[in-house]
Specification:
By secondary structure, the chain is mostly helical. It has one domain (2-303). It is 79% helix and 0% strand. It has helices spanning 2-43, 48-56, 62-72, 78-87, 92-97, 106-127, 129-142, 145-159, 164-169, 176-208, 210-216, 224-232, 237-248, 254-263, 267-275, 279-303. It is globular and about 60 Å long.
Length: 305
């Protein structure tokens, strides 16, 4: 047992410097460009799913939170918000990027999720065009488009953790102290999740063996992507950390990690559940997210056998 804990601690400590560098870069990108991407999504019209998929692929939680705020205010389509959630990888990419030996998996992972998110976003908009039309009409009836956008802009600033991106858009220089503080908080939080997850996986493997753990998690079956998607749909970054660690340890297949991380809408899902006062509509978004993630994972499982 102590050997497992020691190995988990050493592996986690080795990741911290690179993890901090990654998060410093991501916090800068979020502070510098996030508001512009959000406004681009809001104004994108038919190009919404494409821009949403590209914006969501940037590994930070603020974009999915802001996109969820736009959706609850009925300013973007269901296909656009589904594309955001599908392309979001939460904490997965920083974890992979902090391990140089595994960086080669980043490109296929991100590319697959962007393609899946874009195509699925357009599919959802075609199928749900009446739902989208009803929501957009309701927004126009309730207030003008300008006041609707203004309200969402205020909500977006309020949702930001440090407000740097809002300040920057208003001409205020980016506050590097805030960026460094946010990067340190994210690094500490994810480091804790990584250590706990590594300990848990290590203890289970030591107890039952990796082959048995793979069987418990339905390894090499078409049901494993469905199980991964069900884990990923839990709106907490611990889910994406666990899915990533299980994939890197060889327990989950590529199809399963795609299913799990595509379903992982993270904090954006929490905003949707809390702020969308149309429970039936929220259920439809989650159903699309879970269904698309599971089917995509199953297809990849079949193709890569």
């Amino acid at each position: 047992m102590w050997g497992v804990l020691k190995d988990a601690l050493l592996d986690t400590l080795r990741m911290i410097p690179l993890l901090l560098v990654v998060y410093l870069g991501l916090e800068y990108v979020e502070a510098r460009w996030q508001q512009r991407v959000v406004r681009a999504v809001e104004r994108a019209g038919q190009a919404g799913p494409v821009i949403a998929a590209l914006g969501g692929s940037i590994p930070q939680c603020g974009f999915s939170v802001m996109a969820s705020a736009l959706y609850t205010q009925r300013l973007i389509s269901m296909g656009t918000i589904v594309a955001v959630y599908l392309s979001t990888s939460d904490e997965a990419l920083p974890i992979i990027l902090s391990q140089p030996a595994r960086i080669h998996v980043v490109l296929p992972l991100v590319a697959t999720k962007i393609i899946l998110a874009t195509g699925s976003g357009y599919l959802v908009d075609v199928v749900m065009r009446r739902e989208n039309a009803r929501r957009f009409a309701s927004c126009r009836d309730r207030r003008s488009a300008e006041s609707c956008a203004e309200e969402v802009g205020k909500r977006n600033c309020a949702c930001n953790e440090t407000r740097e991106s809002c300040d920057h858009e208003q001409g205020t220089p980016i506050q590097w102290r805030g960026i460094a503080g946010a990067a340190l908080r994210h690094t500490a939080q994810v480091t804790g999740f990584i250590f706990l997850t590594s300990c848990l996986i290590g203890l289970i493997v030591a107890k039952v063996g990796q082959a048995n753990l793979s069987r418990i998690l339905l390894g090499h079956t078409l049901l494993q992507p469905v199980l991964a998607a069900l884990i990923g749909i839990i709106p907490n970054c611990a889910a994406s950390v666990a899915i990533t660690e299980l994939y890197l340890s060889g327990v989950l297949s590529f199809g399963s990690v795609i299913a799990g991380l595509s379903a992982a809408g993270g904090l954006g899902l929490l905003v949707l559940l809390k702020e969308n006062h149309d429970p039936a509509n929220t259920f439809k978004v989650i159903a699309w997210l879970l269904g698309i993630s599971s089917i995509a994972g199953i297809v990849l499982q079949l193709v890569m056998r």
